[in-house]
Queue: 2 jobs
Job 1
Amino acid sequence: MLTFFRVLKFALQDFYRNFWLTLVTVSVLVLALFSVNVLITLKSVSDSIIDNVHKRVDINVMLVSDTTEAEVTNFRTFVSNIPEVAEAGFLSKDAVMEEFKQNNIDNPDIQAAIEELDTNPFNDTIVIKAVNTDDYDLILQKIIASEYSTLIDNNDFSDPQKIISFVQSVSHKVERFGLFIACLFGLIAFLIVFNTIRVTIYTHKEEIGVMRLVGATNWFIRMPFILASALYAFVSLLINVGLIYLFINLLSPYLDTFLADYNFDLAAYFNHNFWLIFGLEFILVVVLTVLSSAFAIRRYLKV
Amino acid sequence: MIKLRQITKLYKPNTYALHCVDLHIKDKEFVSIIGQSGTGKTTLIRLLTAEEKPTKGQLIVGGWDITRIHRRDVPILRRQIGVIYQDFKLLNQKTIFENIAFALQVCGTSRSTINKVVPQVLRIVGLESKISRYPWQLSGGEQQRVGIARALIHHPKILLADEPTGNLDSINTREIIALLKKINELGTTVMLVTHDKDVVNLLKKRVVTLDQGRVVSDQKVGRYML
Ligand SMILES: Nc1ncnc2c1ncn2[C@@H]1O[C@H](COP(=O)(O)OP(=O)(O)OP(=O)(O)O)[C@@H](O)[C@H]1O
Ligand SMILES: [Mg+2]
């Protein structure tokens, strides 16, 4: 225990004696960590967008105006029996009209235009929810291939799928780029820590020589360097946590307006996953720094 | 206390620093090792502190065969052997007290023991009044005495001195040699490597002469004869 505290003390001394070296090392580690967190943020935002789009996109199948009630019932039964369909709801044309009015309640022009109408321009509609949103195309194909295809009035179903695939492709690209950046920073951080430990070993050459001379154990000679590198990891993680919450606070007003429809709260996301995200990052960055200092020690601290 | 059997040290590719050296140094003996430059005196010291391993032969220190000593055991060996050098090897940013305390700290000695033991060894070498000075505020002779104090801190059975007076004038040299003699009389085996003719003649102790890695003479009461 005594020796442990002594090793810790030596490690801490290195930490503030080489102030600039420490600053550079910690900065690079913070950058690496920050880029990982930006990646996590982007991923969570895009996931939540996709999730929400998934939840709210239904296939609205408009029926031709002279469809009979029996036909509607048969059609709904048929759709419900498609295995990929979770639910097939029915909206009468009056209900559709009402919904349209509600959606455009702020728009006086549209309200006026509706008032002008004698007849309801909308049709009865079957609202289909899929078990899995990827199956929308399949469901549509099955419906179109069926005997009920003559009942269908609309000819464009694909909008929601387009949004989803757009968001997906953008987020994939961003993810891949972010991953690349994070790996790059990780590599740079590895090299910087390696160099920092190398320089620290060099500046302590005399002391290390004396330690050997008087019979300090290898463990005691090496441990301060390992510990110092773990301290780099710890300090940079703390700074990173502070930075992330600052970032969230600055960003969330914009994000909130942008994502208003998706009820996504970044701060809540980070709070909820605090230990998972930062714990994992800590482990990752400790492994990185300790590994890199171990390499430097092997290379430059011959015992 | 120290036994060398047919010790050969080859520095690749073809420098024989030591060649088939047989040497037996008894407990509490005071031995001077002399010889021209490059004849393997420092190499001998480095073998005894396990900084180098012999190419051939057997090396026994205090009954312990250290010929193939494991890395893990090297610190244990070094705590039983004190070494002093021509260049003192003191840390300039530490005071005298801290320099000696450092040797104990890195071996896990408690603070209270350190505070007790350090002034004691400083008293042995006569430097208790300069305990909070820095090495650069001391004369060469005083610095070497600090070196000796540090070497004695673990109460070693053996003290190795590699040209400890090489950087000192004759007055300081005499003081250091007198100190080494005193330490020897207190029961420590001393092995002194030196170039200094006066030192050897003054000591009237055993002298081993090396030449090109071989022992060429071994006298009970030696004189410098190169
Ligand atoms: N690490 C090394 N690698 C190769 N050769 C070495 C090494 N150390 C010493 N030597 C060689 O071994 C021989 C003995 O060296 P050593 O240092 O033991 O001499 P010395 O007797 O101490 O000399 P001096 O009186 O000048 O200090 C020399 O020829 C030297 O060049
Ligand atoms: Mg030498």
Note: Residues 22 and 209 of chain B are 12 Å apart (CA to CA).
Job 2
Amino acid sequence: MRQDHLVTSKQLSRADVEAVLDRAAEIDADPGAVADRHAGSLLGLLFFEPSTRTKMSFEAAIKRLGGDTVDMGAVDASSVTKGESLADTVRVAAGYADALVLRHPRQGAATMAGEFVNVPLINAGDGAGHHPSQTLLDLYTIQENAGLDDLTIGIMGDLKYGRTVHSLSYALTNFEADQHFISPESLQLPREVVYDLHLEGATVREHEGYEAILPSLDVLYVTRIQRERFPDENEYQQVAGEYRIDADALEAAEDDLTVMHPLPRVDEIAPDVDDTDHAAYFEQAHNGVPVRMALLDMLLGDGDE
Amino acid sequence: MGMSENGDDASHQLRVSKIHNGTVIDHVRAGQALNVLAILGIDGGDGESVSVGMNVPSDRLARKDIVKVEGRELSQDEVDVLSLIAPDATINIVREYDVVEKHRVERPDAVSGVLSCPNSGCITTADEPVTSRFEVLKDGVRCGYCGTIVREGIADQIDT
Ligand SMILES: [Zn+2]
């Protein structure tokens, strides 16, 4: 496999992360300086699952670098199973574009796709697997607000199916980060993920409620608990209710606690948190553009200058 | 040199015949003998002469299975997969009633194309031109695509 695919956050060393975040900070400070840097470059968008946000963010990033996109368009689920193989689709797309962004419902899809193409490929989500560009923008946001070392972070919500959570927790093992995982028992981290975190020397601390740990956190990363994870509405309402935060609940936190969320949120963060100094989730969403610009700039290289 | 017995410390307790030319797989974890046959694709249909001893007392394992196959020497691929379900096994190659080679199985770092992933959401279980790949861990195997770890029931994942 090419070394310049970005498939999982596990492949990122501390130096890799720092290189992307440094470049993102440079770009964020002066976006005009790179406005034509990749004029003529085409980014291929292969989204086998809808994701307006991630897709828009990549589109904005390549266009702000002077490039453009070629988009496979919307795919409905049935044609994914009946249509041509993913291996064929990515090989064809690699002939049209200078780099590819892939989102696919199956785990390992990006790993496999990367074996078939000779342009850089970015995994933008493979089922319950990985979403490393989200991780990089999360890390950038944490760095800007709290710093990545000497960090105490609580990650809360659906930790079982939440790929952003898995990717983030792997990447944080590169830093001096104390990670706390807060979820109902049925939505704890998959054992595979715990295995990997242990392998990286991380301590996995799991909690069923946030109250006890909240006062010691620098960052609280909230994710959505989805209705479909529960057999009935009542149980969902009851469980999900225990993982909602509002301005009142945050009274117990340090003044400089940073609250993050990959968005979209439903009601797990009350709107009254938006007006507090804790809220960093809109800034986090904005950071997707400079971070993806940095990533694309590094993957596309200097070929256009 | 010629070790005279068929490579078996308990053969006197075992009413299985010595073989002429072939392989004796000894020190198979008790209960895995039939899986060993499955891996080797041996169902008796090709007329091989096969003897199986199950739950035989052993020095090294409390109980072990033993498999003797006439007229068949194992390939490296077969030994690799064997090592996943019978990590303590010894392979004895027999020619003219003598053990001419005797070695422990060694667990490879990875196996390709011999196991299928139990995760139905894994890309390798879709209709894609991809060969399964598993990293061999100390206590299981892990899909090289989706990361799923299989610890128990590895034999059930063997591609047939
Ligand atoms: Zn798999």
Note: Chain B touches chain A at residues 119, 121-124, 126-130, 142-149 (CB under 8 Å).
